[in-house]
Amino acid sequence: MILAANFKMNHTRASTRAYLQRLNSIEKPAHIDLFVFPPFTALDSYESIATIGAQNAYCAESGSYTGEIGLAQLREFGIETLILGHSERRHIFGESQELIAQKFAFYKEQGFTIFYCIGETLEVKERGEDAIHIYLQKQLEGIDTSYDKLIIAYEPVWAIGTGKSATPEDIEKILAFLASHTDAPLLYGGSVKPANIAEILRIPRCAGALIGTASWDVESFIEMIQIAKEI
Ligand code: 13P
Question: For ligand 1, is residue 155 a contact (CB within 6 Å)?
């Protein structure tokens, strides 16, 4: 099982260090792989029971790409795990599928573990199941879904940061659809919190959760780890 904390644009270097120190004070359950994705300025070579990853990176070793970081900056801290295609990158920062696929190919070549995010908007959801399938399939264009270090996170855009998770029935259907296209572990993300994580982790084919808001408080993340331990 995988539990991942996406800090987004939250936490500083100091608070990330304190967070990871507290996280290290628990015993990592053997069957749970933990990941933490701090913002770029808080990346470091931490001793941690969680694997540290980056929330995004450009597809080059280094170069003239103002405002970006690349392979050289990740290597400095031994980072080999990356989120790509997050809906906030797609919808707020306008990343195209083509760019995301280029990043994917570059970091796949480097052997990175890639948390690849897909998910439909509310407008697509309201058009029904076929529309959702077509939309998700487009988000897999140019992505090697047989890559052995690929983890797919299904994160419906309307469920992110809204407090309103997708229903277990809806998640189950989408994960079944995705499982017909890939053998990659499938995560759910979108308003996962201590109150709903148990039912989400019990969904068939759900290999874990990518958690935003409810992971930013370390005690809340630890609470979810403890709940997951019993599943
Ligand atoms: P929330 O848990 O805040 O809905 O965010 C989910 C997410 O985007 C994780 O990547």
Answer: yes
